[in-house]
Amino acid sequence: MGLFDSHVHLDDGAFDPDRDAVLTRAREAGVTGMVTVGSDLASSRTAVDLAQRNPDIYAAVAIHPHAASSVGADALSDLRSLAARPKVVAIGETGLDFGGRSAPVEAQREAFRAHLALSRERRLPVIIHCRDAHREVLAMLAETRTAVIMHAFSGSVEIARECAARGFFISLAGPVTFHNADLPVQVAREVPADRLLVETDAPVLAPHPHRGTRNEPAYLRYIVDRLAEIRAVPVEEVIETTAANAARAFGVPG
Question: More exposed terminus of the chain, fewer Cβ within 10 Å: N or C?
Answer without folding.
Answer: C
